[in-house]
Amino acid sequence: MRALVARRLDGPDALELIETAVPEPAAGQVRIKVAATAVNPVDLAVSAGKVVQFGLTGGRDQFGLGWDVAGTIDSIGPGSDLEPGTPVIGLADLLGRPLKTHAEYVVLDADAVAPAPHNVDLTHASTIALNALTALQALEALQLSQQQTVLITGAAGGVGGYAVELAKHFGLTVIASAAAEDEDLVQRLGADRFVSRADDLSAAVRKIVPAGVDGLVDAAVLGVAAQEAVRNQGGHAHVQGGPTPPHLRGIRVVQIFVHANRAELTELVQLTEAGAISTRVADTYALEDAVAAYKRLAKGGVRGRLVLVP
Q1: What pLDDT, in 10s, does the model give residues 144-188?
Q2: Are the beta carbons of 82 and 30 closer than 8 angstroms?
Q3: Residue ranges matching CATH 3.90.180.10 in the chain
């Protein structure tokens, strides 16, 4: 099979599309014939070696690429309760694997996959797992109650967009920050109030909520600049693997390391089918054109996900 890997951690131009053996599932695992796999900022970070620099994984000869996947189970290991032929979505959440989802086949633990939603195609379904799980786990970490206020930065992006939709589903009041040209998009996602990222974020938010918001999902990774909009003893979900912001003014800072979980994936599938969360595909690329997709993502400004189709 073909698989995209990083051996020289020198950005997209150093990526290699290799021929390798089709992996076999072990006990409790399934093999997925990949129909679509999204490209995410973390893939850029792996290709550039940032995950090694941050100490999130050790160095190795080869890094597999890709976290999201949608496809069809074509083989199962002993003990799996999923059947061949089942359309699924899944998440490859281990950084150091030599082969991941940017490939024609991938093996995942059965708990890392869930039956795909019925109301979207597999290309769109491939954008759910990483971004929506990150948003869900960030909101869960904040432990907010209905009608409390949450600030979401990067609200037009993959994680931020899902965070807006999920926060509204959970009954929170959402203040969203993004580029001025994304105001209509963010409001369609459900934001109650919008703040342009060009403004002084803390000052703009505190005009709306003078005491500060109860919680922050910092999908844009603004750090202290966003935390200043949070009330004393509020919550801050830091959505990045690098150094965490300080716990100023009694604010509880939680660093979000997304992890695969079938129960939560199933919840997200159900919310997709119910129309509570949406999928956004900016464009599709053949697997052999992956470098072009990586370079386009690196330029910024993509709304929705770029998806590789093997």
Answers
A1: 999 999 999 999 999 999 999 999 999 999 999 999 999 999 999
A2: yes
A3: 2-128+279-309
Was domain 2-128+279-309 assigned CATH 3.30.750.24?
Answer: no
Assigned CATH for 131-255: 3.40.50.720
CA-wise closest residue to 109 among 70, 81, 71, 72:
81
Contact criterion met (CB below 8 Å) for 9 and 48 = yes
Strands 173-178 and 193-196: parallel
d(C-alpha 191, C-alpha 151), whole Å: 10
pLDDT in tens, 249-305: 999 999 999 999 999 999 999 999 999 999 999 999 999 999 999 999 999 989 999
Every domain of the chain with CATH number 3.40.50.720 lies at: 131-255
pTM check: above 0.90: yes
